[in-house]
Amino acid sequence: MSIEIGQPAPGFTLYDTTKKPVTLSGFKGENVLLLFFPLAFTSVCTKELCAVRDNIAWYNNVHAKVLGISVDSLHTLAKFKEEQQLNFTLLSDFNKEASTAYDSLYELFGYNMKGVSKRSAFVTDKDGILRYAEVLENAGEVPDFKKIQDVLSRLQ
User: Fold this and answer.
1) What is the mean pLDDT of residues 65-84?
2) Does the pLDDT at position 1 exceed 70?
3) Catalytic residues
């Protein structure tokens, strides 16, 4: 599937760290920032998500919900969220369905790991339409948060 700006964002239902199902369509009427990341507890992922944590007031001010998504287990994500004091929802895509739908899955990652989420960012508007998409091939890079914030500012 090809992700295209202006098209409806692929739907999904994933479990959060409290073991509750979260459905993208449940955010209708809200702007959403989806942040796919490779693996909890790795240096770049921790830096990226902690930067979002430290700027959560900005996202709240523009009425944007932030959802972090990785193929890590619920238990791993819960521990990561707790240790890093992350103040937004983390979702487990353990079965790789959302990562696949968003073209955000490495076939092969470091240490011969198969099926790890690519670092990527997507913004959906209040109607569930995709307004920003960035998929990074290099896991050492982070999304362009300036561009993301520009898009979210315009969607208010």
Assistant:
1) 98
2) no
3) 45
